[in-house]
Amino acid sequence: MKRLIARFIKDERGATAIEYGLIAGLVALAVAVGAGALGTNLNAGFNNLATRVLAWLPAS
């Protein structure tokens, strides 16, 4: 029984899987935040471009 408990305590396979899961989660969070910021900046840029184009066009 002592061997079984000692082997269970030394086993780190579960800890490694949890670490990889946490890393994957953090990477996914970083991608989501980056994509959101990129989308916001692109939206502002296209709105700016549309405003400039409309100001350049002659009034009808």
From TrEMBL:
Pfam family, one: Flp_Fap
Transmembrane segments: 20-39
Keywords: Membrane, Transmembrane, Transmembrane helix
InterPro entries, per database record: Flp_Fap
Name of the protein in its database record: Flp family type IVb pilin
Organism: Cupriavidus oxalaticus
